[in-house]
DUF6090 family protein (Microcosmobacter mediterraneus), 92 residues
Amino acid sequence: MIKFFLHIRKSLIEQKKMGKYFKYAIGEILLVVIGILIALQINNWNEQVKSEKSSETQLSQLYQNVSDDLILLKSLNQNIKNSLVSCKMLSE
């Protein structure tokens, strides 16, 4: 494929058709720019998907941590209530 484009380029320069050569060169540049823009769009989409997955993972971990903390707090609350009852009994 590269040889094909190289042949076109050489023939246009040799025939001194600079107008056609410039059109060809601009077309090549546009194809490269379009390819780069497509690659950037795919990369942005991929990064967004990764970010969403990371956010979901962090949220589920946060939910699990809060659930564990609530269980621990309930246990501590019960221990404090038991301690208060024991203190009252001792003070009497």
In short: The chain is about 95% helix and 0% strand.
